Amino acid sequence: MVLAIRLLMALVGGVTCYELGVAFLPDANLAPVPYGLLVALCVVVGIVLGVVLGGFLGRAVTKLGRRLDRASSLLTASGLIFTSVGLFIGLAIAALGGLAIRDLPVVGPYLLPLLFAVSGYLFAYLGYKRHTDIARVLGFKGLLQQPGVKQFVHPKVLDTSAIIDGRINDVVRTGFIEGDLVIPGFVLEELQSIADSAESAKRSRGRRGLDTVRDLQENYSRVILIERDFPNTAEVDAKLIRLAREMKACILTTDYNLNKLSQIQGVEVLNINELANTLKSVVLPGETLGVKVLREGKEEDQGVAYLDDGTMVVIEGGRTRVGEEVQVEVTSVLQNPSGKMIFTRLAS
């Protein structure tokens, strides 16, 4: 689409500049050779301007097409029909009203476009808002059904926790994810700030998240990066909820609090931890892990470590091994919607 519009705009720009050159250059009384060179230069300039403007126009048309596709997928037949009928009725009423005001001195010609715009919009809006009631009154209940609605796949907005978690990459590879995966610009900025953190653990998680984004782009063709932002909203979670509402999307997360907040505000949520609860655990009792003890635990003689995805590992006997790489044996795994904890002991 973008390439086709660029070629079309290049052709239009070249022809336009050629006509302008032929129309105005003869006034300069130039010799044939300089005249031909200047005309050719005008054509080249027109083509370049057409290619540049065609790029902007092509991207704008592509974005508009995606939005229209999403909007039309949610619109029932009755909504489309009665919105169109309302528009025609509004224009017809404006035409009748125009007979009375077109002959008004001075203001008449200026009131006509305003009358058509306002009347058409009001009746089209009324037809759209009340199309369900109108269809039922007229007995057109079949128009209220849209076979494609149930098959429509909502976009999925990824939050920071789901990207850092990394398991979304494995889910995508299996083919269980459908539709667009949307990564907002403010989520990428949060990942970048985490990757630039002075703490090594946070820095590692941020870099892991950025690697996940890159892998998703390579493995899944429907990853969309958008720059939509809400300057008046400070919290990233609030921005995610507003964006999901605006796009009629669901949020893909591992954040328990965001999960609950989204459900309260009527936004659909897909929680990777809830999915993991129904599947086999990645780590089983008896397995051995290599981890680095980062700090002391709450209980006596406990140490705490973290896996690359942020999962907490509680180590019995690890209090005196802070800062060391140790081998631990898994004793149990506690998993709930808020996350996962792995309980271990130092391997003999």
Summary, kept brief:
The protein has about 350 residues and is an alpha/beta fold. Helices cover about 55% and strands about 15% of the residues. The protein has a 6-stranded mixed beta sheet with strand order 6-10-11-9-8-7. Strands 3-2-1-4-5 form a 5-stranded parallel beta sheet.
Description:
About 1% of the residues have low confidence. The chain is of the alpha/beta class and 348 residues long. Helix 3 runs antiparallel to helix 4 and helix 7 packs parallel to helix 9. The chain folds into four domains: 72 residues; 68 residues, no CATH class; 122 residues, Rossmann fold (3-Layer(aba) Sandwich); 59 residues, OB fold (Dihydrolipoamide Acetyltransferase, E2P) (Beta Barrel). It has twelve helices and eleven strands. Helix 11 links the parallel strand 4 and strand 5. Helix content is 55%, strand content 16%. The strands form two sheets. The chain has a six-stranded mixed sheet with strand order 6-10-11-9-8-7. The termini are far apart. It is flat and about 95 Å long.
